[in-house]
């Protein structure tokens, strides 16, 4: 069991990583102050692990009302938010009520947003079931839904009361989703924790899911996310480094209609491009850039996006919502474990870095 703390400005909360059997919810949560419980779960996750979760709650005397929903990006809509509000109302959730969300990033964002807005905000607990959600979306308090065709357009910052991570629940996750989540883990290592990269270089990709190292891998990535969120809760400065590889990655996802690559896969390719850009602009050792590429390949992630048009990508990147008034902000790594943000990157260098990952 590994315990971390997220010290955001608005709230400090615990993150517990380890088997659900050892969670000890009574010791972790202030149950006395908590009213009715409403749990919203991803249907597929519930089928696999719902009984385990109910046992974990049951041993703390908690018996939540349960709603299961299909997952998938289209679920991040207002219609789904209304469905969740109806569920809360039906079970008479009041301001002292507690919402639990059990699923991947889609459910986490959706239900987190419902919790942020229902009665001007009720407490919620994140129980992530994908690797991406465990190391990324469950921590940090960003919640929201898509609006028309704009991703995460409507949302709120609302920090959870606790995040509970049981790595064993990843056993049912499709392998491809697991690998895609690993890209976000690699990202955390790349920007803040070079030892995490070493750990992944030494780990056996075939056995990682079942090995005891997984808990440490998740904890280290989470520690990076927690630290960055603690420094910049509302995304005004340093939190931007969590977008390492994402400007390239988002453009690649978008240019391939969100069909060819999972988000993490596009981020893997994006990080290879970002590392190339770093060798050209902030003196990253080209051998270090190759090392990242080898690590991604080792864990079954793509590092090239052949047959994607460079000019289309260049255009998509200038439209990236993260482009500030001052211009596009690039996250660069002079060395592994150090990230800087720059708006002064020549377009030609961006094009070269991009060309590198478009070659077949
Ligand atoms: N809030 C944030 O800070 C933040 C950060 C990153 C991403 N996100 C959001 O996260 C979303 C993506 O999240 P995701 O990748 O977790 O996708 P997801 O929630 O859609 O889950 C992926 C798939 O895996 C299934 N699944 C989940 N857990 C499973 C398990 N244990 N066993 C079997 N199947 C399981 C789901 O049903 C779904 O089909 C996006 O909407 C993105 O915008 C948010
Ligand atoms: Zn990401």
From TrEMBL:
Residues that hold NAD(+) according to the record: 105-109, 142, 151
Amino acids binding Zn(2+): 184, 246, 263
Lyase keyword on record: yes
Domain 3-dehydroquinate synthase N-terminal: 67-179
Main localization of the protein described in the UniProt heading: cytoplasm
Recorded coiled-coil stretches: none
Key words of the record: Amino-acid biosynthesis, Aromatic amino acid biosynthesis, Cobalt, Cytoplasm, Lyase, Metal-binding, NAD, Nucleotide-binding, Zinc
Documented EC number(s): 4.2.3.4
Catalysed transformations (reactions): 7-phospho-2-dehydro-3-deoxy-D-arabino-heptonate = 3-dehydroquinate + phosphate
Pathway(s) the chain acts in: Metabolic intermediate biosynthesis; chorismate biosynthesis; chorismate from D-erythrose 4-phosphate and phosphoenolpyruvate: step 2/7
GO cellular component, one term: cytoplasm
Cofactor: NAD(+); Zn(2+); Co(2+)
Entry keyword NAD: yes
Classification via InterPro entries: Dehydroquinate_synthase, DHQ_synth_AroB, DHQ_synth_fam, DHQS/DOIS_N, DHQS_C
Protein name: 3-dehydroquinate synthase
Species name: Eiseniibacteriota bacterium
């Amino acid at each position: 069991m590994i315990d971390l703390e997220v010290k955001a400005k608005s709230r400090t909360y615990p993150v517990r990583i380890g088997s659900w059997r050892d969670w000890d919810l009574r010791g972790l949560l202030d149950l006395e102050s908590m009213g009715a419980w409403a749990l919203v779960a991803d249907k597929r996750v519930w089928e696999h692990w719902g009984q385990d979760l109910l046992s974990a709650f049951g041993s703390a005397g908690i018996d939540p009302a349960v709603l299961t929903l299909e997952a998938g990006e289209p679920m991040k809509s207002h219609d789904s938010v209304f469905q969740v509000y109806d569920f809360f109302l039906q079970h008479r959730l009041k301001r002292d009520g507690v919402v639990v969300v059990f699923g991947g990033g889609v459910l986490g964002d959706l239900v987190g947003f419902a919790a942020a807005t229902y009665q001007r905000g009720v407490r919620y607990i994140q129980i992530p079931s994908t690797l991406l959600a465990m190391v990324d979306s469950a921590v940090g308090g960003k919640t929201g839904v898509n609006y028309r065709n704009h991703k995460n357009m409507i949302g709120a910052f609302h920090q959870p009361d606790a995040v509970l991570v049981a790595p064993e629940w990843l056993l049912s996750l499709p392998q491809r989703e697991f690998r895609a989540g690993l890209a976000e883990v690699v990202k955390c290592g790349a920007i803040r924790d070079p030892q995490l990269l070493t750990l992944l270089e030494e780990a056996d990709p075939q056995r990682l899911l079942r090995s005891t190292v997984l808990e440490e891998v998740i904890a280290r990535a989470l520690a990076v996310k927690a630290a960055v969120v603690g420094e910049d809760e509302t995304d005004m400065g340093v939190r931007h480094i969590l977008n390492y590889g994402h400007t390239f990655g988002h453009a690649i996802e978008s240019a391939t209609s969100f069909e060819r690559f999972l988000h993490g896969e596009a981020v893997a390719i994006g990080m290879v491009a970002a590392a190339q850009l770093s060798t050209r602009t902030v003196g990253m050792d080209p051998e270090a850039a190759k090392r990242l590429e080898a690590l991604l390949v080792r864990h079954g992630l793509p590092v090239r996006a052949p047959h994607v048009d460079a000019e289309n990508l260049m255009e998509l990147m200038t439209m990236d919502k993260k482009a500030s008034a001052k211009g596009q902000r690039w996250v660069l790594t002079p060395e592994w474990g150090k990230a800087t943000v720059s708006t002064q990157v020549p377009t030609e260098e961006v094009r070269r870095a991009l060309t590198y990952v478009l070659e077949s």
